[in-house]
Amino acid sequence: MKRPRNTLKKSPPPPAPSRPNTAVNQGPSFMSTLADGVALGAGSSLGHRAMDAVMGPRQVEVSQPNQPPPENDICKPLREKYQMCLNDNISNCNDLNDLMNRFNCK
Known about the structure:
Elements: H1 30-55, H2 75-87, H3 94-102
Helix pairs in contact: 2-3
């Protein structure tokens, strides 16, 4: 007679130890942001230089008017009063002179 075999049930192997997740994405660092900014600035500069080579250098013209500033509405009466003051030989015309200077009346 045959003997029943003793079959030993083997348990499955233990799970492999899990590795700690060290590659957590915390966003860009200061140095990577700085490097991105430098690369962007350098690329922009190269692009501007290339366009200047193709289109010619940029020229900025600033025009300054040679005309005297327009007279204020108050200048004409001030000038008349000042002239009257000087014609009447009044010694204290300084107030009118100060007002004309303040309003740039020449």
